[in-house]
């Protein structure tokens, strides 16, 4: 919308988060846990900052004067009394329409059922759009009904929505390295469609990348690498992309790339890892360290992999079981 020279407004759901959004029917049929005030405020600030960082980064010389307005709907809900809500919002909602939605119907039919708090979520969200129209001139949602299809992977599953693999925009929730790796490993069946949906590359350039994938000698994941670079740069900026590429290079066997602590923590989020006290590691043999860190269940297993050339320390292959962890200046 910014690229089309349209002012953009975003509503941060401070009040709607105090209620809960009914989970879709494919998700776990449980009411989302209630958040305390401090957590709500922290999440609201975090979401607002993420939106500002991403959309602010996308502004260019052609968009001068166009700013993103971020509002917290709690600001207009906090003075609403229950009687006002019933009179000014509730009376316009038809119960039949509310419970006809599949997400609501599935919850009502479940053993856990649905609380009234959850049921009012649609009314809170609907009034938000009315308020934005009346006070901010926001009319896209109501006037045009602008919608987007659910982003699905080629296997029919939702994109980035699994409980153990959610794709977060905030670097505090998902490091630039892990975001990069997610898109670097998407299947060939998804990569072209994701390039069209998630990047601003020209359609001609995407078509050229698709053509390269069909040619003999194509290096696997070349197109995925471009997708990962574009998305990571858009979300985290050039600095975030550099961090992700540096971490990726550091994990390559034989790499001599040195990492700062922040980047190491980002890598640790995406690979099995553990933390040990410095004194407990110093002068310990690599075989013993492999067992104490739970990398192997036994020393014999560690020695076996070492002899096969598969054990590395700082990305350098270790060929002696007498190798110890030494302090480096």
UniProtKB/TrEMBL annotation:
One GO CC term, this protein: mitochondrion
GO MF annotations, alphabetized: ATP binding; RNA binding; tyrosine-tRNA ligase activity
E.C. number(s) listed in UniProt: 6.1.1.1
Keyword RNA-binding among record annotations: yes
Main EC class the enzyme belongs to: ligase
Catalysed reaction, written as an equation: tRNA(Tyr) + L-tyrosine + ATP = L-tyrosyl-tRNA(Tyr) + AMP + diphosphate + H(+)
Listed GO biological process terms: tyrosyl-tRNA aminoacylation
Keywords: Aminoacyl-tRNA synthetase, ATP-binding, Ligase, Nucleotide-binding, Protein biosynthesis, RNA-binding
Alphabetical list of Pfam families matching this protein: tRNA-synt_1b
Statement: the UniProt record of this protein carries the keyword Repeat: no
Family to which the UniProt record says this protein belongs: Belongs to the class-I aminoacyl-tRNA synthetase family.
PANTHER family: TYROSINE--TRNA LIGASE, MITOCHONDRIAL, TYROSYL-TRNA SYNTHETASE
Protein name: tyrosine--tRNA ligase
Protein source organism: Arachis hypogaea
